[in-house]
Prior knowledge:
The chain is mostly helical and 567 residues long. It folds into two domains: 368 residues, Na+/H+ antiporter like fold (Up-down Bundle); 129 residues, CBS-domain (Roll). Helices cover 69% and strands 5% of the residues. The strands form two sheets. A three-stranded mixed beta sheet has the order 1-2-3. The longest helix has 37 residues. The C terminus is likely disordered.
Amino acid sequence: xxxxxxxxxxxxxxxxxxxxxxxxxxxxxxxxxxxxxxxxxxxxxxxxxxxxxxxxxxxxxxxxxxxxxxxxxxxxxxxxxxxxxxxxxxxxxxxxxxxxxxxxxxxxxxxxxxxxxxxxxxxxxxxxxxxxxxxxxxxxxxxxxxxxxxxxxxxxxxxxxxxxxxxxxxxxxxxxxxxxxxxxxxxxxxxxxxxxxxxxxxxxxxxxxxxxxxxxxxxxxxxxxxxxxxxxxxxxxxxxxxxxxxxxxxxxxxxxxxxxxxxxxxxxxxxxxxxxxxxxxxxxxxxxxxxxxxxxxxxxxxxxxxxxxxxxxxxxxxxxxxxxxxxxxxxxxxxxxxxxxxxxxxxxxxxxxxxxxxxxxxxxxxxxxxxxxxxxxxxxxxxxxxxxxxxxxxxxxxxxxxxxxxxxxxxxxxxxxxxxxxxxxxxxxxxxxxxxxxxxxxxxxxxxxxxxxxxxxxxxxxxxxxxxxxxxxxxxxxxxxxxxxxxxxxxxxxxxxxxxxxxxxxxxxxxxxxxxxxxxxxxxxxxxxxxxxxxxxxxxxxxxxxxxxxxxxxxxxxxxxxxxxxx
Length: 567
């Protein structure tokens, strides 16, 4: 019986799984909102809610539920990998490929080296009945696992804060490639550790070739599936069918990856990269469709991550090893990325803040720890699993806030916003035309026609001597006035104007203004000061769209301009 079961009298071990999923998504979303209000990344809220309703506390989402949802977790990771792959465009790698590789190998190998040394020495000092062979083996395996970086939580923060710039580009590339490097290091390190402990069950050649097979096989599988999907998407225009084919491809590639024993996340990344580069013009709309579909998937995935955390009692020497592991991994990621950025002449923001974005670990690290637990004896295997799962909780909590700090310090927040996001942030006064073509209410017909000829406007506010809005004149109102031809020679603007039915104040939100203009089928409306009825300007939907598009382009160019200037 769980704590909540005891209090409520309800047996949460037997409630329907669909109800549990609904609770997880609902409370996960609520938790994310609360944490956002506290200026903490939403992914932390998902994980904390998972901790509360999962194994560590209430056990509403228990280990049985989590094990039944293994396939869902693989699908969620596949979607995350696919979206990351969409950011890996050839032109970016042509410009910054050497920089990415330098940082990748530096942060991975430096982390491996520091953790290896610290764990080896600490293990020899604090672990009972431990010899140097065992200590070195433990250091090799934990060092290899420490080089892995979890993309999911990091990328979620980048998406949440709509970042763009050299730091964002670098981090996306590193977390996309990091798992491959971790698999390679683990292959060599585990082989050496097996030789030291006498627990090797496979040949040295097999241990070395297996990581290469997993990486190269995953890339080939992703590229081949991507080529097929590119061919299909060329002949499909309906959004619902595009979404169906894309999600089906992600599911297929995850299933094939598991059947062929290759890395499923890397396969999904290769699939996304193939779509992004094979359909450069249409791929954006494809990834937008998938992005709109995925929020509940991300919520449930991270809630399950928190719910599955095993935070049971650990012996004091295991806690010491875990702390040493975290300190060594953090130092390795930070100094390794700094050194790689320095030797590759990366921009200052990459050199200073890239390390802060690489602290999270999850799926690959936990997976490698489980592989190690099967490969080595009980003491070493269980110790590795305890250290990795325990520290995963810690770095998953501190990792996202560190990413937030880094992108804010780098000045890359809100540089990748969409037109919809920008419209939400604007008021009418930010985009209105403050010098519209107007007409005085006493203006005679010949001067009205002259005004028409000298401007491309088709909507003219009519004002009195105090610049107060009294009416509007449009092309349609002029045409209607010509029906009464006997009055035309003496017509003034006040005779031809129409009453003003809809106006805005400059503080009206742009989103609300555009919605109202669409509902009343108006392309242009007046903006006034409500207390005096004084005309301040007009808002025109076409001009608004041009201004918003220009601002989006300006922000993107500003962010990319930094990336083009190496330090």
